[in-house]
């Protein structure tokens, strides 16, 4: 099998696990939308994109360990995945869709994220339990990327980051210490507003 079409498993509320074969490269939009009991997904080794709404409302999904072949994550791909505990984005990721909505990813119970090359605006907006973020090779931390992530304690940014967008870490009020990349050119407005406990801002 090389592909799964649009809405192929839409609303299959009894589905609990699925594993993609290593040769499968194409996944349709809304493919597993509304699979509320889907807790485990094996993404294989060849998937190139996670399209729009692919895992929308998969409330039982716990992890999303994407293979290195993935280069794009579409709008709302993991929207309302409220049980996510970790999200691993590959370094080869070139596009995470920019969506001007608060509920792009509502991983309220998630606690870790590893980001690839680019992350969309509002990517982790309001993921209130997220505690650890490794920005990997990301070059831009976009607008409101971690807005309201009140539990965020540990932040790692590479030297490749050149811009931190407006409100990027707004109200991340337990973030205490992190380093500014040496290539940083722009810090957006109110990006650290209400950062109450910072005791050290280090410039690389």
Short description:
With 204 residues, the chain is mainly beta. It is 0% helix and 22% strand. Strands 6-8-10-11-13 form a 5-stranded parallel sheet, with no helix packed on it.
What can you see in these coordinates?
The chain has a five-stranded parallel β-sheet, with no helix packed on it. Residues 97-110 have low confidence and may be disordered. The protein has no helices and 17 strands. Helices cover 0% and strands 22% of the residues. It has strands spanning 3-4, 17-19, 26-27, 40-42, 49-50, 63-65, 72-73, 86-88, 95-96, 112-114, 132-134, 140-141, 154-156, 163-164, 177-180, 186-187, 200-203. The chain is mainly β and 204 residues long.
Helix-strand blueprint:
Elements: E1 3-4, E2 17-19, E3 26-27, E4 40-42, E5 49-50, E6 63-65, E7 72-73, E8 86-88, E9 95-96, E10 112-114, E11 132-134, E12 140-141, E13 154-156, E14 163-164, E15 177-180, E16 186-187, E17 200-203
Parallel strand pairs: 1-3, 2-4, 5-7, 6-8, 7-9, 8-10, 10-11, 11-13, 12-14, 14-16, 15-17
Computed over alpha carbons, the radius of gyration is: 17 Å
Helix/strand/pairing class, anyone?
mainly beta
Low-confidence stretches: 97-110
Q: Specify the helix fraction band.
A: under 10%
Number of strand segments = 17
Series of H and E elements: EEEEEEEEEEEEEEEEE
| Overall 3D shape | elongated
Distance between the first and last residues' Cα? 48 Å
Largest sheet data: 5 strands, parallel
What is the residue-averaged pLDDT?
Answer: 76
**Quaternary state of the chains:** single chain
* Strand numbers in spatial order across the main sheet: 6-8-10-11-13
């Amino acid at each position: 099998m090389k592909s799964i079409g649009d809405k192929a498993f839409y609303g299959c509320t009894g589905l609990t696990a699925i594993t993609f074969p290593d040769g499968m490269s194409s996944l349709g939009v809304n493919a597993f939308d509304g699979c509320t009991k889907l807790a485990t997904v094996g993404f294989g080794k060849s998937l190139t994109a996670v399209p729009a709404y692919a895992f929308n409302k998969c409330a039982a999904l716990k992890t999303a360990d994407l293979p290195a072949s993935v280069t794009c994550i579409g709008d709302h791909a993991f929207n309302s995945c409220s049980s996510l505990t970790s999200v691993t984005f590959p370094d080869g990721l070139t596009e995470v869709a920019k969506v001007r909505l608060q509920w792009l990813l509502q991983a309220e119970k998630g606690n870790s994220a590893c980001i690839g090359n680019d992350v969309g605006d509002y990517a982790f907006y309001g993921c209130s339990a997220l505690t650890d973020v490794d920005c990997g090779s990301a070059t831009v931390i976009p607008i409101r990327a971690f807005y309201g992530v009140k539990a965020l304690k540990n932040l790692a940014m590479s030297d490749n980051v050149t811009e931190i967008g407006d409100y990027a870490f707004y109200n991340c009020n337990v973030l205490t210490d992190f380093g500014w990349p040496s290539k940083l050119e722009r810090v957006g407005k109110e990006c650290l507003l209400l950062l109450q406990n910072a005791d050290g801002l280090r410039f690389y």
